[in-house]
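Re: that chain you flagged

S.,

Sorry for the slow reply, it's been a week of failed gels. I finally had a moment to sit down with the sequence you sent. For the record, here it is as I used it:
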Amino acid sequence: MRFSLTIDCADPDRLARFWAIALGYKPKDPPAGFVDWRAYFRSIEVPEEELQGATDVYLVDPDSVLPQIFFQQSDGKFG
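Prediction finished late last night. Pasting the structure tokens below so you have them in one place:
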């Protein structure tokens, strides 16, 4: 079974750096032809207000065995 894990957090960059070292993961490259993930999401017309912070981070297992992790900026308010 393949899946992705999404983690809402206040500081995606900081948390992703920690987990990248702890798990041996690396940042996931954006799709070919895009400088970063925000550029990609803009190209598929994701509304700017849904992009939130520029710091959302994808991490992947370099061996492509374990799930990818997405750290998403959140203000902590749910519901």
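What I noticed first: The first helix runs from residue 12 to 23.

Talk soon,
D.
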